[in-house]
Amino acid sequence: MAKKDNINKDELLALIIEGIENVKGEDITILDLREIDNAVSDYFVICNGNSNTQVNAISGSIQRTVSKELHDKPWHVEGEQNAEWILMDYVNVVVHVFQKQIREYYNIEDLWGDAKITVLENKN
Fold first, then answer.
1. Among 22, 24, 12, which Cα is nearest to 49's?
2. Which residues are registered as beta bridge partners of 44?
3. Residue 3 to residue 94: CA distance in whole angstroms
4. 3-state SS of the chain?
5. What is the pTM of this model?
6. Does residue 34 carry a pLDDT above 60?
7. β-sheet bridge partners, residue 93
8. ∠ CA(55), CA(124), CA(9), 5° rounding?
């Protein structure tokens, strides 16, 4: 699949983060995968919520925020039913919204240890 080069990645990242912060998502981390050979996307954005309700709310907020500003929607979304880990694929940016204990279990940040990692301060 071709990458969506018509969408500004910096603007997309900013809107995803805004969507997370709008519903008090926590522990926002950005993994820059651009220097990693055969990476599945340019960026991973990882965050967590405290319940399946909040995880769903974060996912919905991201989708509304991005859609309103960029008129774009995820190419694919998985995990909305049990809302322990929702994956939102915007092609160049993949968003992982976890419940805290599930995030700790899978520890994606360590799996992509070669990535440049940026941890954002909580604004909540």
1. 24
2. 31, 94
3. 12
4. CCCCCCCCHHHHHHHHHHHHHHCCCEEEEEEECCCCCCCCCCEEEEEEECCHHHHHHHHHHHHHHHHHHHCCCCCEEECCCCCCEEEEECCCEEEEEEEHHHHHHHCHHHHCCCCEEEECCCCC
5. 0.91
6. yes
7. 43
8. 65
